[in-house]
Amino acid sequence: MPDKGPRPSLEYLTGIARDLIFNSTFNKTINTYSVALKKLCEFRELYNLHKRWSVLDQELLNFITYLATQKMPATTVTTYISGIAYAHNLKQVNETIKSFIVVKALEGLRRKTGELRQTYEPQ
């Protein structure tokens, strides 16, 4: 490959990569995910929890339960969890969002609030 001038620094490449990823997501989505992370921070402060990545599945379960007790709609809770998953993916950390207890808690919340309908006919 022919040399086309000075090579860019890794810091420069990292910045460009961040911009590419940022530009792949709509601003409204980023704003919504920012609200989700803010709510997570508020929850952590309320219960004196450590602010670390990744968010442990038990902490996510408690966060989901907390939001449910605040009468947060299941769709909003699911969106918030998606925002946390997005942050996990950006930080390239394990995604506990898909853990069994988190998935089941979200499903249970949707069923409880009537936001999940049965997809089969009872016999």
From TrEMBL:
<dbReference type="InterPro" id="IPR010998">
    <property type="entry name" value="Integrase_recombinase_N"/>
</dbReference>
<protein>
    <submittedName>
        <fullName>Uncharacterized protein</fullName>
    </submittedName>
</protein>
<keyword id="KW-0238">DNA-binding</keyword>
<dbReference type="GO" id="GO:0003677">
    <property type="term" value="F:DNA binding"/>
</dbReference>
